[in-house]
Amino acid sequence: MSEQNNEQQPPEKKERKSLSLNVVSNKEHKGFGAGTIDLSDVACVIIDQGEAYIDVGAMHAKSKIEKGIKFSVNKEDVPNGRSCWIVWVAVDRNEEGSFYAGATACPMLIDTEARRGWKILAQHVNNLDYAIKRRFVLDELGAEEKAALKALLVKHNAEWWDRSSDKLKDALNV
Predict the structure, then answer these.
(1) 172 φ, ψ (degrees, to nearest 5)
(2) Distances in Å between the alpha carbon of 108 and those of 9, 22, 96, 153?
(3) Distances (CA, A) of 38 to 22, 35, 42
(4) What's the DSSP call for residue 32?
(5) Tens of pLDDT along 34-44?
(6) CA quadruple 56, 57, 60, 66: dihedral positive or negative?
(7) How far apart are the C-alpha atoms of 114 and 85, rounded to whole Å?
(8) What was the pLDDT predicted at 143?
(9) Does the pLDDT value for residue 151 go beyond 70?
(10) Cα–Cα distance for residue pair 161/149, rounded to 1 Å
(11) CA triple 91-93-98, angle to 5 deg
């Protein structure tokens, strides 16, 4: 019997391709990762009791106000909930510089004491998609929420606000 070479070669490491969020479109797919979008161009703004602030945790439903809350799709499950909003704000860039390109608002009810909340996840996903696609859906916001959002956007970057479309400025003028 002849001796066999029992030395094993280390397995060759394959390069891993990272997955990104794909947006389905009617464009022809050009290979792995084609049509992916960069969510780093989207900010999550929370409006709670007249105060607007950026909370990156909202991208994964882990914002300050969402942590520890059990959500339902039935408003009746949250009779004492306060009205809160997540606003998805997309930023784009042209030859003049960056600007607020899309913004959409999604309502929520939060009852912190009961640790219960209401939101429609499908609406949040669709509105995130609309913001990425440079749309403005802010009609459901009240005057106080619009003023808070406008103040935050201007304070965050006045130049971006100045370069933003009149559609956004008109939607937030109260």
Answers:
(1) -105, 0
(2) 56, 26, 36, 21
(3) 10, 10, 8
(4) T
(5) 555 556 689 99
(6) negative
(7) 19
(8) 96
(9) yes
(10) 11
(11) 70
Please name which of 160, 18, 4, 7 lies closest in space to residue 89, comparing C-alpha atoms: 160
Least confident of 32-46, 48-62, 90-104, 123-137: 32-46
Return d(Cα 97, Cα 76) in angstroms, integer: 46
Measured in residues, the chain has a length of 174
Query: pTM for this one?
Result: 0.77
Beta bridge partners of 107: 85
Q: CA 163, 166, 168 angle in degrees (round to 5)? A: 90
Output phi, psi for 110, to 5 deg.
Answer: -130, 125
pLDDT in tens, 57-89: 888 888 999 999 999 999 999 999 999 999 999
**Owner of token pair 């990156």:** 56
